[in-house]
Amino acid sequence: MGFYHVSRIGVIRGFYSLLAALVERWRPKTHTFVLPVGEVTVTLEDVAHIFGLPIDGEPMSGWINNSSDFLQSQSIAIFGRKPEVSSSSKSYIKLGSVRRIRDAEPLDTESIRRKVRYSIFYLLGSTLFTDKSTAYAHAKYLPLLRDFERIHTYSWESACLAHLYRALCRASRYDTKEMDDPLNLLFVWAWERMPCIAPILRQTLPPAEIPVAMR
């Protein structure tokens, strides 16, 4: 599926001064950071090395349905049960409930497929396409998990990069106080490309491997 590497990466929190500095130097028109040495940006190659996601594949596209009926029908078709949703927005599913149900699934053939779908959906909401709360995932990703044989055919890496660009563009607005993740991707990219600002000296780290975020 291509998600094994991502599942091994923990969550990086803090370092808000670094985040603020990067957002301040982000230019939405060019999707680049303007630094004293020139313009730089996160590329598909960076995402491939940091997260180990596949580059090639079908584009992730479609229309968004925020209705509760859509969420319920998709969840039943994919997970076999109704989800626990956010009290403020019925189109967001609680990641805590997803993790609990996944861990309780038996290990027969059909349940294993549901378990894999639960795990991927949890990664989408907690690592790749997170929002400010980091506790919910939008139901718009459910249709991508419906056909089990097609899950691995999508270009998850390009979608992750597009999500980061959009999050940076939103965060650079004067009236925005917080930024959506994926901060793991942004922080590791900054530390790899500018090792002088990394919290740990590079020579003390283990050798780089895919995904680079593991170290």
Automatic annotation (TrEMBL):
GO biological process: meristem maintenance
Coiled coil: none
Pfam families on file: PMD (PF10536)
Aminotransferase-like plant mobile domain residues: 2-202
Domain of life of the organism encoding this protein: Eukaryota
Name assigned to this protein: Aminotransferase-like plant mobile domain-containing protein
